[in-house]
Design brief:
Layout lengths: L3 H8 L3 H9 L6 H14 L5 H8 L4 E6 L7 H13 L4 E6 L6 H14 L4 E5 L5 H5 L8 E4 L10 E2 L3 H14 L5 E5 L5 H16 L8 E4 L4 H12 L7 E4 L2 H14 L8 E6 L2 H5 L5 E4 L2 H17 L12 E4 L21 E3 L2
Parallel strand pairs: 1-2, 1-3, 3-4, 4-5, 6-7, 6-8, 8-9, 9-10
Antiparallel strand pairs: 10-11, 11-12
Helix pairs in contact: 1-2, 1-3, 5-13, 8-9, 10-11
Length: 353
Amino acid sequence: MATIKDVARLAGVGVGTASRVVSGRGSVAPATAQRVREAIAELEFRPSHAARTLLSGSSQMIGVYIPMLVGTFYTPILGAIDTELRTTGRHMVVAFGCGDGDTRQQAIEGIDFLIERGCDGLVVMSNALLQSDIEALGPKQGKLVLLNHYFKKLAEQCFPADHERGGMLAAQALLKMQHRKIAVIAGPRSSPDNVARIDGFMRELQREGIDPAQVVMLESDFSPAGGWASARSLASSGHEFSALFCANDEMAVGALAFFQQAGISVPGTISVLGYDDTHNAEYSAPQLTSVHIPWQQIALNGLRWLLNQCYGETQPVQRKFPVSVTWRASLVMAPGAEQPQATAPKARARSKI
């Protein structure tokens, strides 16, 4: 396999000159550069990743941190980031939460891992971090973008979703179908995005005359198993409800599985509404109505901002991400409710309510 020394020897130039032509950095006379390019073609020279790093001073790698590598939520986001990077000849390195520490410590350790691997920039999807954790990175903090988190002092680097509006739209969807007896399976109260969507949901119910204190709510962990266990607890609690709002699709799918096993009809007896609008929603049984958060668009725009910072690119960056509801079969009119003249949108149709 040819090396940069072989290219320099064939072109009759020094290794430094050949390196400048390969990296595109530095001044080389046009005739000399042409000889180097001809030598590259003749030798079929392809610099290794390590060589490209030495030549360019950059690894051409972006580190991506996610809290966990389970379920279906993160896979499409990672796929979108990887596809975008590969179109420009770059690659990603992924770290995820593991170890004995809490979620914040796991995120800090994951970021350290990516920095140690020489990543040029970092995409971090964690809302457990504090602003001081980012500032502690020193010069590296300018080459980091945060997804689904927001710090006012770091606003330029943050790409959050409007979860308060998402919760409000969830409430409006249930009210549109005349549900007044409602149960909720929430995520962890330590999760800021969960708090925002639940707050938006409860405020909208209160605005429409439903006392939030009358809404039975259980806290779970965003997992299908958590949704299954919470649905079982609700079914045996004696609380009467015609609609269930789950704070993410994975818990909603777990709840659907319990209801099916218990012989509780969805949507005949209980309507179920999810959140995120992941692939699970489209392929659950019945198909799940869900609040649509444009996660891939959020991730790609955050990545493009980062590429502009790391490599001097000028890609356009969007910062407003509309939230909507994707209607499917799991949400129908409340039992005994009068059918309105205009019913819910057809399955798979996306509506802003």
